[in-house]
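Reopening this ticket.

The earlier resolution said the output was attached, but the attachment link was broken on my side. Pasting everything inline this time so it's all in one place.
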Amino acid sequence: MAASRILVTGHAGFIGGRVARALSAEGRKVLGLDLVPAREEAPYLETAVGDFNDAHAVYRLIAAHGIEAIVHAGGISGPMVMPDDPYAVYRANVAGTMNLLEAARTAGVRRFVYLSSTAVYGEMPADRPSPEDAPMRPLDAYGGSKAAGDLMVRVYRLRHGLDAVALRLGSGYGPGRRTASTISRLVQAAVTAEHVVPLGGVLPRHYVYVDDDVAAIRAALDAGSVRKHAYNIGGPDGAVPIDTLVRVVNEVVAGARVRLAPGPDPVGRPSGPMDISAAARDLGFTPAYDLRRGIAAFAEAIRAGGANGDDRPRSG
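Inline output:
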């Protein structure tokens, strides 16, 4: 299956923007939907400013553009966003996802790809990778909202015939991320010759480079059939502790001499390790970026594009 008319929600954001541009560059007709316009647009990407909580607007967009597939990347993007407003998190990540699922069902959309999160698992065993059937025990409103959307993907798949799949993404990093991130902070410090970084207490996480996220989404869109309702997506290194992360940054980034000082954890929860073998078996996806390659690519993007390495196409 290779849908050519695709709705991507959250196209002004980190992963949504990158996947929308990648799909557009392949010659597919992509409609990006977000609350705000992207700062710069690729000339071949059609966009709409709107709210997927507006069910009628979603139905109109799907009908008007003949949408065949949906990549739902929009919503609250992490536990560091609106942590003290759980209802806003629910409205964006649960009610909005339900609007899109129902619109996809009634319109006969061929494939629905939902970007879930490792946050659905909450506390995860440190001694073995968690498979997709591990218990969901989220620790915050963000994780709970992603788990709710993930489970509704399963319901719509099993009971309502929607060809839907959830991708449980690990902790993402790479060019264009603007929310708090441990790797972003460390790589920015390394590139700018900042030596002391206040990041004490960071928990081990299963990281994934943004280009691997995009590759996994493309694989989920185009797979002929999808056996499971959800797949773990992460890098090949498993859960990485902070001391390993600092060591790799210092080894990979020329001239880096980063060391940690006491400080906050930008995210405040662990994420991994995850068992990512099912995505390789069913979707044909294996991560191409280990930690060393991802950090090197990210550092180069920061040098070329500024503070967060934003490498989207420039206008003018």
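Reporter confirms the inline version is readable. The first helix runs from residue 14 to 25. The first strand starts at residue 5 and ends at 9.
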